[in-house]
Specification:
The protein has about 400 residues and is mainly beta. It contains 1 helix and 23 strands.
Length: about 400
């Protein structure tokens, strides 16, 4: 199930982050030992114990002895007295019958010492002996290094190591950017070539026609006239402009809604995000404009496209404009060149100006329109439309 797969990824990422960020420790806990990760709540020096609130929210008491080893990234944690409240910690040891852990090794660090997690999404464009190349959604081509601790996951269980990755696989990567080793992958979740999960994700906009809170389901009459029933759960996020919609009990018949969902293997539609509100709160749909063709001129903050039919359209750009390319060569306005094939998604500002929300460009063949499907005017409608002036 997709839910179980996602939970495995998140838990693994959290544990791996702790190990890498705290101590870059080698090896996992032996089979006869347990390992917990969390935050130190208090330290009882006379009693040789400290309490840890784990990642799952459980409080665990840890007992130290003269044989307990202490480790930290910078070597500052040498003994029990060096531990402080609010430090992030990982404890490896044996569980006692009363639930207390006898610590064999204690890794600790302050929050400032922990690296930031990078969350990258894209397609695998190459696989090497100890790394792979990821073409991200925003057009960057990144080398992702793999270490022994890197965890690999997939829906079908076929991706368990670096060698199982294939070009064009969809991938979600949790990583850290290190000074010595570049970007290091902690968790790699990969799908089969052709999209896998992405092919089952869809969006629907329409009116809520029925709600059954006891079954955690609701039905939407889409703008295309289709009646679709959605299942909600712990993973479902509810949103509204005024904050009044926080769960399925707040949904009412007649509300307008936009639902992001995934088609499950059993045919049900699992709602991931539900945006809902009263009809009078419905936002006006922007005047969407798109153009596909060739770039024929570039200005200081504008570009002009000549379509296949010979029509010319000029678009302004600003710092909110997104850029994409298949080979990663275009990540900003400065990478555009006259003669490039391009696809632009924008909107008419009503004053004669067309503003570009997203630009997909590259060498021939032309960029396919669907490559820009994450640039949605309704998502970006709250962005300020202040064009660059230089």
């Amino acid at each position: 199930m997709f839910t179980k797969w996602t939970r495995i990824i998140l838990v693994t990422a959290a544990l791996t982050l702790g190990l890498v960020g705290v101590a870059y420790a080698e090896g996992d806990a032996p089979d006869n030992q347990t390992r917990i990760a969390g935050v130190i709540l208090n330290v009882d020096f006379p009693g040789n114990t400290f309490a840890v609130r784990t990642l799952s929210g459980t409080d665990v008491h840890v007992h130290v002895t003269g044989n307990t080893e202490y480790r930290s990234r910078d070597g500052s944690i040498q003994e029990f007295e060096d531990l402080l409240v609010d430090m992030r910690t990982i404890v490896v040891g044996q569980e006692r019958g009363d639930g207390t852990i006898n610590a064999a090794v204690v890794f600790a660090a302050t929050p400032e010492e922990l690296p930031d997690i990078m969350r990258l999404k894209g397609e695998v464009s190459g696989v090497g002996d100890s790394s792979f190349t990821l073409l991200t959604e925003d057009g960057r081509s990144l080398t992702i290094n793999v270490i022994e601790r890197t965890r690999f996951r997939s829906r079908n269980g076929e991706v368990t190591k670096l060698g199982d990755l294939e070009t064009d696989m969809a991938a979600l990567v949790g990583a850290v950017d290190t000074e010595d080793n570049g970007i290091v992958a902690l968790v790699v979740a990969a799908g089969a070539p052709g999209g896998d999960i992405r092919d089952r994700i869809f969006r629907t906009t329409g009116e809520i026609t029925g709600v059954i809170p006891g079954q955690e389901t609701f039905t939407v009459q889409s703008n295309e006239g289709e009646s679709i029933t959605f299942v909600t759960g712990e993973r479902t996020k509810f949103r509204s402009r005024d904050g009044s919609v926080t769960g399925i009990h707040d949904l009412k018949r007649g509300m307008f809604t936009m639902v992001g969902a995934i088609k499950m293997e059993d045919g049900t539609n699992q709602a991931l995000v539900v945006l809902a509100g009263n009809p009078e709160d419905r936002p006006e749909r922007p005047n969407v404009v798109s153009a596909s063709g060739k770039i024929i001129s570039l200005g200081g903050n504008s570009l002009t496209i000549e379509t296949r039919s010979g029509e010319r359209k000029s678009f302004s750009v600003d710092s909110s404009t997104k850029y994409k390319s298949r080979d990663g060569s275009v990540s900003g306005f400065g990478d555009l060149e006259v003669g490039m094939a391009a696809f632009v998604v924008g909107r008419d500002l009503g004053n004669g100006e067309l503003h570009a929300l997203g630009v997909g460009a590259g060498k021939a063949p032309a960029v396919r329109p669907e490559r820009m499907d994450d640039v949605r005017p309704e998502v970006l409608r709250d962005r300020p439309l202040v064009s660059q002036t230089g």
